[in-house]
Amino acid sequence: MVNRELVVVGGGPAGMAAAISARENGVKDILLIERDQYLGGLLNQCIHTGFGIEYFKEILTGPEYADRFIRKMTAMSDIEISLRSFVVNLKRDRTLTYLSPGGLCELRPRALIMATGCRERTREMINVPGSRPAGIFTAGLAQKLINIEGLLPGLEVVIIGSGDIGLIMARRFTLEGARVKAIIEIKNCASGLPRNMVQCVEDFDIPIHFKHKVLKISGKSRVESIAVAKVDENNIVIPATAFTVTCDTVLLSVGLILENELIEMAGADIDKITNSPVSTDLNNTSIPGLFVCGNAFKVYDYVDSVTADSELSGKMAAEYLRKCR
Amino acid sequence: MNNYDVCIMGGGVIGTAIARELSRYKINTVLLEKEIELSFGVSKSNSGIIHPGTQNSPVSLKGKLCVQGNILTRKLSRELSIDFKEVGELIVAFNEDEVVKLLQIKKDAEKLGVPGLKMVTIAWLRKHEPNLSRSAIGALYSPTAAVISPYRWVYNLAENALANGVRIFTEAKVESIRARNPYEIHITTSRGIFNSRFAINACGLYADDVSNMVGINDFRICPRKGEEYLLDKKRENMTKHLIFPLPSKVSKGILVTRTSDGNPMIGPTSEEVIDKEDLSTTAAGLNKVLENARRLIPSIKEGDIIAYFAGLRPTAGDDFIIRHEDRVPGFINVAGIQSPGLTAAPAIALMVTDILRREGLNLEKKRVFHKYRKKEYHLFADKKLREAKRLIKRDPEYGDIVCRCEMVSAKEVREAIKRGARTLDGIKFRTRAQAGRCHGSFCTTRLMKILSEEMKIPLVDVSKRGNGSEIVVKDRSHG
Asked: Does the beta carbon of A220 lie under 8 angstroms from any beta carbon of chain B?
């Protein structure tokens, strides 16, 4: 079995920052594993601006922000990058099995940083009654369809929840010529950032209904309508306020969950509700030498914070490796 | 020419079980399904339980065919390489009256020939089902209850029938039937006219409408909805057995079961509806399911739910209707096949074969009958890394993961399409791609591309489950 000093799983902003930082802190033998054919992770589909204000004091798009790290990392000769590589198994002793073009590899690095990001909560997790037709997407999937694939999911859209991706997609659908007919939020304020409320919702006059709840999705083959009603202070539906919005598309923007199934597979302690690693120190897990960073550690509002967090984990991994010697 | 000896209408578990049975004989058989894929009607929402036969009247067709079907399904599942997990079931009693009823159920079931039944005590329950409600005072244990994947079962039956010469047409909706002369039935469909000596109506929810087409209208199919809620696999070890309350007059009640893939499942509700396409779940249904499931297993939480769906049982009175219609020689109704229809399917197929023989169809066995179906690979679900290594070496596409949650490779997806998947749901049912924790957020775009490539259709035509359920409305990727 091949051994490595450090393996970083994930080639998004977190993984790249962690690998670069580990290198800058003296680690010489680093392998970064990325499942996609490109580096950059979800930044690739975030073609809007607003990235880098903290870190670079500049306003960048997602791909531009990613590109700075891709250039820096690929110039470092001690970081090997393995694209289209997919981790299928992780053991407590940090033995890692992954697929890469051409075969199945096994590694046992001395330290491991997991930069696996997060995923969106789905309709299934929040129990929305009604039927299950085509036309129901998480906001991030709709973003990928439009921005990466050039495919328009629908023409009349209702968004459930008001997370940042949902708000950004409200603007994106509008710019693509679709009509965003409503955003439905059960709380009395948006989940997303104030700047997205202003730039993506208010500037485009998109109706947002606070203290409202979805009662039902209707439609046999494709979404046809959605029934909504106001809720009282205890979030109980007020039936007299119910109304229906016709639409062909429903987006969900109801929160993110840390993607930590691999460290869970390895036997690290995981909080059952947040999916975050349970340990005594930042970016650590209950398994020595196994670190977690970026949105897999905690869901951050800004990519700049992801970068800062991941740089710290790279430094911690370097210190851990020094102590091991 | 579309001339057949037997035309089976309906591509659910009943139609495909009959097709597979008839494929042993030297006859021309065709199967017609109105949806884009098989199993997209009643069968796809089945809970997948192979019942032992404990909850049926000892004089009913249901009872007899269920017990026989349980035995036949075991044998057939080995021949067709499908996971058949014998987990056993417990019908739980909460008071002395219920214990008395259980003893009656046991007696009736033994009369039908259900094997291995025994009453178990509180101490046994504490030991074997520690999560069961402390209010339970005893249970009837039947070891022969099992679980199977209902749609994969339909696909495997169909695939083997196809390998043995049965022809299958999907998107072939029966529009009218003409039967002027005995044993000359002309079936007009959306894919042309099929002439057949015999016609078998296995049209599920629409069996009454199809029967009406030949003037037989003495039964009506009433859809009865069942909502089911799937729980996280992390709760896989919540129960060892399938847990049932005492059955009511119309249904087996709300159960704690599991799928053949290991997810616990709670439900179904039982509610008569009018609309034969009403597959919606409701807030009331969820509350009812949770409340009743918690009576059995109190630790179930709403947060354990990871998916939910509804199905419709095609009910027509108390028992199955399986008969040759003497007024329309050659026309056989197989209707009202609600629970335990999945279990009974192979027994129903034998019964229908007997009817055909009695009505004069010459059933001579083929010299070569392909009894076995080769098992498809699901590399990482089985966690056999050495086997995976070997296969990836042979075909690198096995190493190209499309669905990260269930670890389904591009090769497995392409194989599923070669075996008949035409839609995203069809791929999901066969491979589990999109059935994991992200529900397709990650793999949908890739699956769409593979479907588009394999079927040579534009991306805008890729659908969830056929016409009208396309995923996207416009393709702007070519400028």
From this structure: yes
